[in-house]
Amino acid sequence: MQQRVLRPDGPLPSDRPHPADWLHFAAEVDGEVIGACSVGPSVWEHPQWMVLVAPQWQIRSMAVLPDHRGGVGSMLLHAAVTAARQAGAGGFWADARVAALGLYERAGWQVVGPDWVKPGVGPHRYVVLPPPTPR
Ligand SMILES: CC(C)(COP(=O)(O)OP(=O)(O)OC[C@H]1O[C@@H](n2cnc3c(N)ncnc32)[C@H](O)[C@@H]1OP(=O)(O)O)[C@@H](O)C(=O)NCCC(=O)NCCS
Q: Which of 18, 59, 92, 120 sits 20 to 30 Å CA-CA off 39?
């Protein structure tokens, strides 16, 4: 499902499989997976834009089938961040398509660094979510 939504023309040469220790979340309707995202430990390599508490975790492969969009992406993001925090995640980061920035910003993520283009996909920005500040 993630491949169908994110890579309709097939994988890119730069695509890498998710490491074995990553967590995967799926939204299902009547037994069909209609949305998914993945999260796992991954070093943030741009501290010049935001210093993120280690261990840093990355969200990847966020995708919802077109007929089911409208809230599912936010639920997947919340589930992934919550589970990752329980597993010991510090700060989070993702490389987000520009069209999807609102999804992250509404969940409290911050857009950092300049626009950049992922070859074969299009314009991207980095988004980050620092850990909550202790009260
Ligand atoms: C991004 C995506 C997962 C959101 O799913 P969803 O169930 O609609 O999620 P939500 O309703 O919680 O969030 C809606 C946000 O998705 C983003 N969005 C809407 N249409 C989009 C599209 N065609 N492509 C990418 N992002 C989109 C917007 O940021 C929108 O927020 P806004 O209305 O404030 O601008 C879904 O649109 C999708 O699979 N898009 C194609 C793949 C993709 O771009 N994945 C993200 C890679 S970083």
A: 120
Nearest to 68 by CA among 28, 98, 99: 28
R_g over Cα of the chain: 15
Region at 6 (left for phi over 0; alpha for psi -120 to 50; beta for the rest): alpha
Task: Give the integer Cα–Cα distance in Å for 94 and 6.
Answer: 15
Query: What ranges do the domains of the chain cover?
Result: 2-129
Q: Report the nearest atom of ligand 1 relative to the CA of 101.
A: 29
> What is the 121 CA–ligand 1 centroid distance (Å)?
15
Superfamily holding 2-129: Gcn5-related N-acetyltransferase (GNAT) (3.40.630.30)
Percentage with pLDDT > 90 across the chain? 93
